[in-house]
Design a protein that fits this description.
The protein is α+β, with helices and mostly antiparallel strands. It has one helix and five strands; from the N terminus they run E-E-E-H-E-E. It starts with 5 loop residues before the first strand and ends with a strand.
């Protein structure tokens, strides 16, 4: 299990973008749904439960084929509001 990533905001773009700072080694090739293009880690407000941006994503992600997996929801031991997976349309 990897440590929780840390988010760092930069300059004037801080309102709309952030940069993920890696704190652990990367998963082996083909061992991650990120590497296969089926998952993304988002920022810009979506990376925190309870924000307007997260609420919008919860309400609209399915329209674009994305979902927030159950294991990443609060109370399931590995909360990751920033993690979204492509499930298809």
């Amino acid at each position: 299990m990897l440590p929780r990533p840390r988010w760092r905001r930069r300059g004037t773009a801080a309102r709309t973008a952030c940069t993920l700072v890696a704190v652990a080694s990367l998963a082996a090739a083909a061992a991650s749904n990120h590497g296969s293009g089926l998952a993304v880690d988002l920022c810009g407000g979506i990376e925190r439960f309870g924000t307007r941006q997260y609420a919008w994503m919860q309400a609209n992600a399915g329209r674009f084929g994305f979902l927030h997996p159950d294991w990443a929801e609060p109370g399931n031991g590995r909360e990751e509001p920033w993690h979204w997976e492509y499930a298809g349309s």
